[in-house]
Design goal:
By secondary structure, this protein is of the alpha/beta class. The chain has eleven helices and 20 strands.
């Protein structure tokens, strides 16, 4: 027994030393590679209590190369809103899209990763450069998914991802004195312990956090309830009755992560929450899916209220409008419903979609016209 214990310790130490020397991007070399967004802004409402600002930033792989490159990429949207006098100190809520924190998995890694053409190649390079840590987690970390490789990758990088996510969004919240619904990030069943987002040994989850204007992260966490088929391979479901309602200066706020907005039972929970603001951070990829025929619900049976004739007939965009927030939000107490989408090109993955809004119980048309490298701000005065 002593031999096996000693051998295990030796193996662990050996694996942990198998790390390649990394050469991250320098900030000066990144500026030319970051997107130069064309800003679009739509403004609605005349209220004076405050504003809710949905941001769909246009991002690329270099936006995630360093912590500073991501901060600067996002900050220009915050600054644009401030320059346009859309921000109320302590009375503005910024909304960001799903998965905005997930690509921190590559942040501060070797620049060779960013030279790859595809996500698959980039992730393979990430594993090679962190082979010791990867093998350690693969061999000794608990597994809850069918895609053990992808699960291991995110578990291996969980602490670094968490630190960057909290550092950047806390910084932006303090700098602009705004609350932030910080999209989402994939982490192993995180908790907030003494003000710190803390990964655990639990299953991977797609989670969303709320940051207060003083930079504090709220200790309540939104966990995605209905991961789609591709996500189910490595992400676990949250529990419906455990998702929180946040108290904000503009009213109670409820978050539905992407596909959750398609399911009737979530709206039953929403009614019980007495929320006045509904936020839906979303992610649709590849981009061209938006205009293609809808294939029905992804990963789950179609609810009974779905018209089977719509499947294979209407577009993905039309299905979002009919069966997600725009079609299901009937609660007259909700003053604002906002659904924003991740936009950009991350290696060979393109992401798109057009935001949806419901304001004072009425639908609001999104007036945007598609342009390349377009970053979008949607400002609602409450």
């Amino acid at each position: 027994m002593r031999f096996f214990v000693s051998f295990s310790v030796f193996l662990c130490l050996t694996i942990l030393t198998l790390q390649c020397k990394k050469q991250p991007h320098e900030s000066t070399s990144l500026s030319a590679k970051l997107p130069k967004p064309i800003f679009y802004q739509q403004t609605e409402g005349k209220g004076k209590r405050g504003t809710v600002i949905g941001i769909e930033p246009y991002l690329n792989k270099y936006s995630y190369a360093t912590e500073e490159s991501f901060y600067l990429s996002i900050r220009e949207y915050f600054q644009k809103a401030k320059d346009n006098e859309n921000i109320f100190v302590d009375r503005t809520i910024i909304v960001l899209p799903e998965y905005i924190g997930t690509w921190f998995v590559v942040t501060s890694e070797d620049k060779s990763i960013f030279e790859k053409e595809t996500i698959s190649e980039a992730m393979e390079e990430l594993v090679k450069l962190n082979i010791g840590s990867f093998l350690w987690h693969y061999a000794f970390s608990p597994s809850y998914s069918t895609d053990h490789l992808k699960e291991t990758l995110f578990r291996m990088k969980a602490w670094q991802m968490t630190d960057r996510y909290q550092s950047i969004f806390s910084r932006l919240a303090r700098e602009y004195r705004v609350a932030i619904v910080a999209g989402s990030i994939v982490l192993p069943h995180p908790k907030v312990v003494e003000g710190k987002i803390t990964p655990t040994d639990g299953p991977l989850e797609n989670v969303s956090f709320y940051f207060h204007p003083d930079g504090r992260v709220d200790d309540q966490i939104v966990r995605k309830l209905f991961p789609i088929a591709e996500e189910k391979q490595f992400i676990s479901e949250g529990k419906l009755n455990e998702n929180p309602t946040y108290r904000t200066p503009l009213g109670k706020l409820y978050t539905m992560v992407c596909a959750d907005s398609w399911f009737p039972e979530v709206y039953q929970e929403l009614t019980q929450s007495e929320a006045e603001i509904v936020i839906v951070p979303s992610f649709v990829a590849p981009k061209h899916v938006w205009s293609e025929k809808w294939n029905g619900y992804n990963g789950y049976a179609n609810p009974k209220d779905i018209n089977p004739k719509d499947i294979g007939t209407i577009t993905e965009k039309s299905a979002w409008k009919k069966y997600a927030m725009m079609g299901r939000l009937k609660n007259p107490n909700v003053k604002l419903g906002m659904n924003v989408f991740f936009r950009g090109e991350i290696w060979d993955m393109t992401a798109g979609g057009d935001a949806f809004f419901q304001f004072m119980a009425k639908p609001v048309n999104n007036l945007v016209k598609e342009e390349k490298f377009q970053g979008r701000l949607y400002v609602f005065y409450l």
